[in-house]
Amino acid sequence: MKQFNPEDFLILVVDDINQNLQVIGEILEKIGYDTTFATSGEQALERVQAAQPDLILLDLMMPGINGLEVCQQLKNNPKFEEVPIIFLTASNEKEHLLAAFDKGAVDYVTKPFNAPELLARVRTHLELKKTREELKAALYEQSRLIEKLEKLATTDPLTGIWNRRYLLSKAEYELDRAIRYQSPFSVLTIDLDKFKQINDLYGHALGDEVLIDVTKNILKLLRKVDCFGRMGGEEFAILLPETDILLAVNVAERIRQQIANLVFNTGDAVLQITACIGVSNYILGNKHETVDAILQRADKALYQAKKQGRDRVIAYESEPH
């Protein structure tokens, strides 16, 4: 925690007796605190909005809106609910303190004021507030770091979609679910045709542009429940929960057409690309099905698509067709 410095804090003092304001102001300002004042509950609420103090010393009993009501309003406001409120109370008003704590006060100081006691209580609650804020900031940064690390561990850095490792773990989950509920589940494997030639002829910068643009266009055609990932290089895979083989082929065909419609400017010429897509599915009733087997069937179908001339979709059930 940073060193405590009174000059870093603004304290609002609220009391309907000017002499009390003067006494407290002198005690606080001698140490170095910045101060602002209010002589009524209404004025206190206005000063809180305008000055946004770090701590409030609040007279318990005042005409008009009393200290309890001011405290209640501030604690009901998310913007000011964390501001510590210390009540200023006469010795004959202590019966109201339970109500004060119930409304969110953190402490109280009895009139007439004892300077060391007042300063000790003020510092204690400012340090607690400062510590809470620093802990919140540290926890926020930690959560952001964890989120960033999780993203690095699960996403492909170029395209922003899931990486191979996460996609395979997601496939295991979806297959287990399909087996448990005997629901359809299909997989697409996608390979861009002659992608190596793009890198060799036009450079990796254009190759990366192609991969990013293809990814964006495929995402437009998928549902939220679908899972899209890059397996490596120009190879992608898509998990389609609750989707039978016929519906999966329709999805694959739309993706193939979307990719075939893409145009890239190489500077000297216009480049069009195509893709082959293999489709396979979980065979209902097979309790021993594995993700590896489904992917192998999809890859066999993909190989057949390449063999038959590229830019096509082939589904594999018992035989690729």
Give a short account of the largest sheet.
6 strands, mixed
Output the number of helix runs: 10
Q: What is the rounded Rg?
A: 34 Å
| Average pLDDT over all residues | 91
Roughly how much helix do the residues carry, as a percent range? 40-55%
- Please state the overall shape, judged from the principal axes of the Cα atoms: elongated
Ranges where pLDDT stays below 50 over 5 or more residues in a row are none
Count of extended strands? 13
Strand order of the largest sheet: 6-8-9-7-12-13
Q: Structural class given helices, strands, pairing?
A: alpha/beta
Q: In percent, how much strand structure appears in the residues?
A: 15-25%
Alpha-carbon distance between the two ends: 67 Å
Order of helices and strands: EHEHEHEHEHEHEHHEEHEEEHE
Structure description:
It is built from 10 helices and 13 strands. The protein has helices spanning 18-31, 41-51, 67-75, 97-102, 115-154, 164-181, 195-202, 204-219, 245-260, 291-307; strands at residues 10-14, 34-38, 55-59, 85-90, 107-111, 162-163, 185-192, 227-232, 235-241, 263-265, 270-272, 275-281, 313-315. Strands 6-8-9-7-12-13 form a 6-stranded mixed β-sheet, sandwiched between helices. α2 (41-51) packs parallel to α3 (67-75) and α7 packs across α8. The relative contact order is 0.09.
